[in-house]
Each structure stands twice: as structure tokens, then as C-alpha cells.
Design brief:
Low-confidence stretches: none
Shape: globular
Number of strands: 5
Order of helices and strands: EEEEEH
Strand content: 35-45%
Helix content: 10-25%
């Protein structure tokens, strides 16, 4: 069984891009520069700055489960 840890949803900015992502709570600090793994390529991309940190906390297993639910919904739809 994988080790569970808390995650927070954060606003991120890199060059001319912005995104939101659930990241481990220990890295969720405004102003911190991170490397994030691209899910499409599997490569690490540096230079992402945490611009905001959400108040809510979820455990890693719930975040993973919800991301897979979204993936299954997209595959089942005609979008």
C-alpha cells in the first residue's frame, strides 16, 4: 500500500502559462519554485512558481481516485 500524504490545490505559473494542480502539502508554499511531471510525456518541467494555495486538504488517495474518475468520464463521453 502506498504511503498517504496530504495535498493542496495550488495556482501555478510558468513563463506564459498558468495552471492549477494538487501538489503535496509540504511543497504548497506561495513563492516556491517547483518541478512538475508532465503526465503526457513523463518528463519533469522546472520553473513552476506556486502563486496561490487553497484552503482545502485532501489525501493523496482521494486526489488520485478523482483524477481517474475524470479520465474515465472523458473516455466514456463523445467530447
Amino acid at each position: 500500500m502506498a504511503k498517504l500524504y496530504n495535498m493542496r490545490q495550488c495556482g501555478l505559473r510558468r513563463e506564459n502559462a498558468a495552471d492549477r494542480a494538487w501538489i503535496p502539502e509540504k511543497f504548497a508554499q506561495a513563492g516556491r519554485i517547483l518541478q512538475l511531471k508532465d503526465h503526457d510525456t513523463g518528463e519533469w518541467e522546472g520553473g513552476w512558481c506556486v502563486t496561490s494555495v487553497g484552503d482545502g486538504v485532501l489525501t493523496s488517495d482521494i486526489v488520485t481516485e478523482r483524477s481517474q474518475d475524470h479520465k474515465r468520464t472523458r473516455e466514456a463521453s463523445d467530447i
